Amino acid sequence: MEKARLEALLERLQTTISIDDLQVWAHELRDFFRVTHVFYHTATLKREQIGAFTYSRDWARHYVEKNYLAIDPVLLGAMRRFHPMDWKTLDWSNLAARAFLRDAMEHGLGNQGWTVPIWGPQGEFAVFCLNHQCDDTEWAEFTGRNAKDILVVSHLMHEQALRIINRELTPPSTELSPREREALTHLSVGHSRAAVADILQISENTLRAYIDSARHKLGALNVTHAVALALAKGIITPQGALPKY
Amino acid sequence: MIHFLYADQLSGYPILADTMFLDRAAQFKHRLDWEVTVDDSGREMDQYDVLNPLYIIASAPDGRHAGSVRIMPTLGRIMTNEHFTHLTGGVRIASPLIWECTRFCLAPDAPVGVAAALLAAGTEMGIRFGIEQALGVIYAKTVPIYRRIGVTPDIIGTDGKGRDAISVGLWPMTESARAEISRKSGIPLSVMARWFDASFPRHAMTESAARLAA
Q1: Tens digit of pLDDT for each residue in B2-25?
Q2: Which E.C. number(s) belong to this protein (chain B) (predicted)?
Q3: Alpha helix (H) ranges present in B109-188?
Q4: pLDDT tens, A160-170?
């Protein structure tokens, strides 16, 4: 049920065509996770700052005016790391950082956060954050339960933002290796993972790595979506179908 | 003791870091005769060490390196995709849910249990961060060692024969894998959790939270 809702939400993500749209979508994602705020930020190659967020525009403006970019422990921490970070593991020891947090909370941000640093294939950098108001136990439970989904969602949101920024609203054509294509082809005719692994004479974990990689390269949400995209782009052909001459 | 340290944190642990790179030279250059570069001070470092990877390092009681592994996300530059795609079925492995683990190294005099501790720590890390699988390049002959520790890697591909055969494999970073490692190695789950929490400590962010904690 939750999974189906998330899939629907991620399909909706791919229909966003502007940063304003992405901002609306961030609100939908916030409602899905039932957190206080969702925040995505990247800088383009032209050094334009691009953001999609659920907190007030007042806070966004205030953040820029106060030059919080220079002291924000979330951003400074994420820039040197690649692991998803609980905000409590960041360095809040100095007075400026604590004053910044107080100011943020006065502007409606919660006391908890989880940030995924995103390092893209072109060397671009982005951050994705969930922010929430709750106690430590509840936050640890939430992040433990959702760590995987948050990772996947954050990268898909980044890819969509890139498409919007680069005005490439149909995903670019993707090169898949023969093994990835074989895996998707066998899945497309309804074979189970176990059967496909058997046919390809690989383990199910290897198959999972192939599918995961293909899914990521296609910008797909899940296996079904990856198969549909690969078919639509002609990367794989429906088995048994006549070639199109 | 287990440390999770990024390359940019190693300067705070000079003895640990130096002995790690020296032990890597001992293992990869001198024992295995790989084509690796050793600098003037005898330390083995490569092009990936400068990309600020994360290391999991086991230290001996005297603070020296006992064993280590290097972690990098597969969405960035990684050794497997740049040098070993002939062992992955030609697939460039790239997923936010898969991280690469390379340069798995043990000190020449490493006590028993270091390999298991590193595997346990890595699996704990994967679970905490939401990573599903670890991708690694290993000697095919070391597979039985992993099996003894509790996790059998899935070999995607192998190159060469006999003692020198090299494989690319996948390790699951799941709760059942962690439980199995714990059962086989005797390392309690609570200890794995403590190792992780010691390297990624949570601090009170606000004064009121600090007062509550105190």
Answers
A1: 999 999 999 999 999 999 999 999
A2: 2.3.1.184
A3: 114-129, 143-149, 175-185
A4: 998 898 887 66
